[in-house]
Amino acid sequence: MKTATIPVKVCIWRGCVLACFAAAVLTGCSHSQKTQAASWDPKVAAVYLDQRETTWMEWPPAARDHETFCISCHTAVPYALSRPVLRKVLAEEAPSVGERKLLDNVTKRVRLWNEVGPFYGDQGYDRDKPAQSRGTEAVLNALILASYDAQAGHLSDTTRAAFTNMWALQETKGDKRGAWPWLEFGMEPWEAKDSQYYGAALAAIAVGTAPENYRSTPEIQDKLRTLGEYLDRGYATQSTINRVVLLWASTKLPGLVDRERQKSIIQEVWDGQQSDGGWKLSALAWPNDWSLRSFVRTRLRADGTVQQDRSDGYATGLITFVLEQAGIAREDPRLQRGLSWLARNQNKQEGSWPSLSLSQRRNPSSQVGHFMSDAATAYAVLALGEDSSHAVVTSSRLVPTGTRKMAGQAVPSSSNPTGSAASP
After folding, report:
1. pTM of structure
2. Tens digits of residue pLDDT in 355-370
3. Which of 10, 88, 135, 269 fits a disulfide with 181 by CB distance 3.0 to 4.6 angstroms?
4. Residue 424: band (very low, low, confident or very high) from pLDDT cuts 50, 70, 90
5. DSSP per residue over 210-271, as a string?
6. How many CB atoms sit inside 10 A of residue 94's CB?
7. Residues in Cβ contact with 303 at an 8 Å cutoff, skipping those fewer than 6 apart
């Protein structure tokens, strides 16, 4: 049989076509991966968050004395942190109506600190609720005001007063020394037995966020040191999600956490990433104390219903945002997978991201049923809206293991081991 021959020029031409086709496919895939995170809709996200904040401010159970409202961990705080990002993305010239009302409310309660009542009194609650309310509010007020002052580059007198209120309530005795009394309703991730650690980490973020180098103020150095010691002392038993907030704090307050611990938290987070690129809060929100209760709660809510067994917007949004803050490059394929999950899972009609209560099964269309999605949407916005020039954690920002240097002071470091009743 005579073998057919193919001219050399045809082979070369076919080879070029195949090579070009392959290159086009690879380029297209790469381009798709890089731009996938931009496919979210910031406009509908803004509509959702504005509507939810307005609903919260006008909801009768959120009302407090002197015509103020409660500052919730699930709706108000995430809104305050994320809405300015949307304002920038959407090229809005001024804060939204919801932002102005929220800031006016916080400012009013700070200025009337000795006159307004706590979020929760002892009537109908245990006797610790007033102190828990004060401690929680003091930290949240400082965080919100410092965040807005950072945008203007000036620390206002009201924010200084908020920090004064906060430091006055810092625990000074016992194993909670350095933390703040914190609301506890048995509800993860913000109002549970381990949420005091979360609150202390937020206080560190507030201090590190405040402009005009507030963290170096001489009169707060002893208090800062005590805060750092508390966060170090309680680290071993903290949930992964609490450690993520600590990592966030370390990006705002240099020297709070040493390099090895930062690396350990980041690795712990990567280990928890799901095959779809996201993270699931139900597996990350319970104390690492090897208790039967923590083990059971990763699978069952307090009401006996089964925990969500898939990635959710709150865990994925918060973790992805914090990883960006910690200097993980946008080109990192694992971070890209997280950003892609967020882009794919926005409800484009409503503008929100999905997340469910860890405490009990809620009707997702109810007021309370929206709380987790409120926080999820805000942190998804923070992650997706983060500029590619985010701060990078380098060796110059960290101190060698064995010493933590905070605000100009050396602090010995111990060995590192490897809102409301209507809240979620």
Report:
1. 0.83
2. 987 777 888 888 877 8
3. 135
4. low
5. -TTTGGG-GGGHHHHHHHHHHHHHTGGG--HHHHHHHHHHHHHSTTSS-HHHHHHHHHHHHH
6. 8
7. 359, 360, 361
CATH tag for 36-412 (out of 1.20.1640.10, 1.50.10.20, 1.10.3720.10, 1.10.260.40) = 1.50.10.20
The helix-helix angle for 259-271 and 240-252 (nearest 10°) equals 140
* Residue 56, both tokens: 């919260």
Whether 354 contacts 313, CB under 8 Å: yes
Q: Contact at 8 Å (CB) between 383 and 342?
A: yes
- Spatial contact of 310 and 264, defined as CB atoms under 8 Å apart: no
> pLDDT tens for residues 330-389?
899 999 999 999 999 999 999 999 998 777 788 888 887 789 999 999 999 999 998 433
Largest separation between any pair of C-alpha atoms in the chain:
103
Please provide the distance, in angstroms rounded to a whole number, between the alpha carbons at the two ends of the chain: 79
- C-alpha pair distances (Å), 384 with each of 76, 87, 129, 242, 328: 20, 13, 36, 21, 14
What's the token pair of residue 112? 């009337």
Residue type, 239: S
Check: CB of residue 336 under 8 Å from CB of residue 330.
Answer: yes
Helix (H) or strand (E) holding 12: helix 8-35
Q: How far apart are CA 310 and CA 297, in angstroms?
A: 15
